[in-house]
């Protein structure tokens, strides 16, 4: 383990020499503007809570090593609240002028934040690669702690000087956080450093620690680019809106014979069909179909915010977790064509958000949006489920298993879109709106007609071992259990009008302030 600690010390020293920190010390902007680079950190900081909750933390503690790592996650998962606190103290909402849609674009679609979406999956992948070995998990966690200490050791003096000027305590960027980022996993000293690793585990631990440092070096490159391109120039990132895709009829179904389902695939298919039928009868869909005084427009608006993380995050699940990085053979190529089409749909959703006037309906600032997406108990349900899907995708590289995972994910949405399509078409018929995502015109975002290429591939007739069949069944039940939980939450939120879509917030307060906890 000492070789891993030595690596961490050496690479931490190199990170501390990153040009970003020289910019922070010597930037040609006032001290009060240097922390305006915070928006480029938002993806990582806000997702870091999820990494601690659902990836790094052990579900059941069976050793002192796991207990120490879990204790460290208890502390680290609290830091995203400090980040939002400082965001507001720095008046970033006013400086950016972003509404909810701008913040969604920044988090999920902006080119500047694309590296962070990949890093999040790289981070998650480590906790699958380490196979739950606490000594290996310590290796990459310790590297992450060293990187955090390098950052806050350099930035906290600036935050402290700014505090002296403004009389405002910046707890995320200042000493409060640094005191909790000592450069090591909490309570690990004298425990992990005494452990002996065999050559194979040592090499794997070194590789994981190096991978963590590589992520942080890449992130600091992004911090530096943002600081020079935006903060130094007094500019603010602006959403680049693309034109609506040209309307065209849905591609005609190809007259091909349905792929055969053979062997153990039959049992998995039977389970999927049963779960799909049960989910289609969920009470949330009956609420969507109901008549009465609530209009079709209001029914869509009332539940839509709850699905942002699921819908916008689906792009990254496909792009970075499910897609084969180096596809081999027809199966993996067909699968990649499928995920390539699916990852285009989030732009359609954001267009629907605009058309439905969600920014005006909610009245959220950027920090309100961040707080809702990443800290609301309701969105925890969605993000926890995305974490489950991500781990399943990363852990199973067999084309047959990834096909089944994606087949289950897509099948779980069939009833959802059958119901939103009816409402969206009703709204379109009564207004000038176009709701391509909710009306299930996803094909408009595809570069070609490959959207169904994966589902038409005969993977269900290829060999599937008994162990793989069991994993596939687990995937199906995991997906539908997740969707059922999300639908139950959506029904409660929509029926109660939790977001105040059809009522004005008291005293002109923002919807986020008015809505309270879930």
Summarize it.
This protein has helices spanning 2-16, 19-26, 31-34, 42-56, 64-76, 79-89, 92-96, 100-108, 114-129, 134-166, 175-178, 199-231, 265-280, 283-289, 296-303, 308-322, 329-342, 345-355, 358-362, 366-375, 377-395, 399-412, 414-430, 466-495, 511-515.
Explain what the structure shows.
The chain has 518 residues and is mostly helical. The protein is built from 25 helices and no strands. It is globular, with a radius of gyration of 24 Å. It starts with a helix and ends with a helix.
Helix fraction, binned, reads 55-70%
User: What ranges have pLDDT less than 50 throughout 5 or more consecutive residues?
Assistant: 513-518
The separation of the N and C termini measures 44 Å
Average residue pLDDT: 93
Number of distinct helices: 25
Q: How many strands, which pairing sense, and closed or not: the largest β-sheet?
A: none
Could you spell the SSE succession in H and E letters? HHHHHHHHHHHHHHHHHHHHHHHHH
What class would the helix/strand composition place it in?
mainly alpha
Q: Which radius of gyration do the C-alpha atoms yield? A: 24 Å
Strand content: under 5%
Based on Cα principal axes, name the global outline: globular
Number of strands: 0
């Amino acid at each position: 383990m000492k070789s891993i600690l030595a690596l961490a010390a050496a690479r931490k020293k190199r990170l501390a020499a990153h040009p970003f920190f020289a910019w922070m010390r010597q930037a040609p902007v006032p001290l009060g503007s240097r922390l305006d680079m915070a928006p480029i950190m938002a993806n990582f900081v806000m997702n870091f809570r999820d990494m601690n909750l659902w990836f790094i933390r052990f579900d059941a503690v069976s050793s002192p090593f796991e207990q120490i790592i879990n204790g460290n996650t208890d502390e680290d998962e609290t830091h995203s609240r400090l980040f939002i606190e400082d965001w507001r103290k720095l008046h970033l909402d006013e400086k950016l002028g972003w509404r909810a849609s701008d913040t969604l674009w920044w988090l999920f679609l902006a080119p500047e934040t694309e590296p962070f979406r990949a890093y999040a999956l790289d981070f998650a992948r480590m906790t699958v690669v380490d196979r739950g070995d606490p000594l290996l998990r310590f290796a990459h966690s310790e590297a992450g702690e060293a990187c955090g200490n390098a950052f806050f050791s350099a930035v906290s003096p600036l935050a402290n000087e700014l505090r002296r000027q403004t009389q405002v305590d910046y707890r995320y960027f200042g000493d409060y956080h640094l005191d909790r980022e000592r450069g090591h996993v909490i309570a690990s000293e004298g425990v992990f450093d005494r452990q002996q690793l065999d050559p194979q585990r040592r090499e794997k631990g070194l590789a994981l620690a190096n991978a963590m440092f590589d992520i942080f070096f890449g992130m600091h490159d992004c911090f530096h680019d943002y600081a020079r391109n935006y903060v130094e120039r007094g500019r603010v990132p602006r959403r680049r809106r693309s034109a609506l895709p040209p309307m065209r009829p849905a591609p005609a179904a190809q007259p091909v014979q349905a792929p055969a389902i053979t062997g153990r695939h039959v049992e998995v298919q039977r389970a999927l069909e049963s779960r799909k039928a049960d989910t289609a009868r969920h009470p949330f869909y009956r609420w969507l179909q109901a008549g009465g005084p609530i209009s079709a427009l209001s029914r869509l608006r009332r539940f839509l915010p709850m699905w942002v993380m699921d819908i916008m995050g689906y792009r990254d699940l496909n792009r970075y977790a499910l897609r084969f990085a180096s596809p081999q053979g027809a199966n993996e190529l067909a699968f990649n064509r499928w995920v390539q089409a699916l990852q285009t749909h989030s732009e359609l959703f954001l267009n629907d958000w605009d058309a439905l006037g969600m920014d005006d309906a909610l009245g959220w600032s950027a920090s309100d949006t961040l707080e809702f997406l990443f800290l609301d108990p309701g969105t925890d349900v969605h993000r926890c489920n995305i974490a489950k899907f991500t781990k399943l995708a990363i852990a199973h590289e067999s084309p047959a298993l990834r096909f089944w995972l994606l087949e289950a994910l897509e099948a779980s949405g069939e009833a959802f879109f059958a119901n939103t399509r009816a409402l969206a078409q009703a709204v379109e018929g009564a207004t000038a709106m176009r709701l391509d995502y909710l009306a299930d015109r996803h094909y408009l975002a595809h570069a070609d007609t490959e959207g169904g290429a994966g589902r038409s591939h005969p993977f269900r007739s290829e060999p599937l071992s008994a162990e793989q069949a069991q994993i596939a069944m687990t995937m199906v039940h995991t997906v539908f259990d997740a969707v059922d939980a999300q639908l139950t939450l959506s029904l409660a939120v929509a029926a109660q009008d939790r977001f105040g879509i059809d009522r004005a917030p008291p005293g002109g307060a923002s919807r986020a302030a008015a809505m309270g906890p879930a």
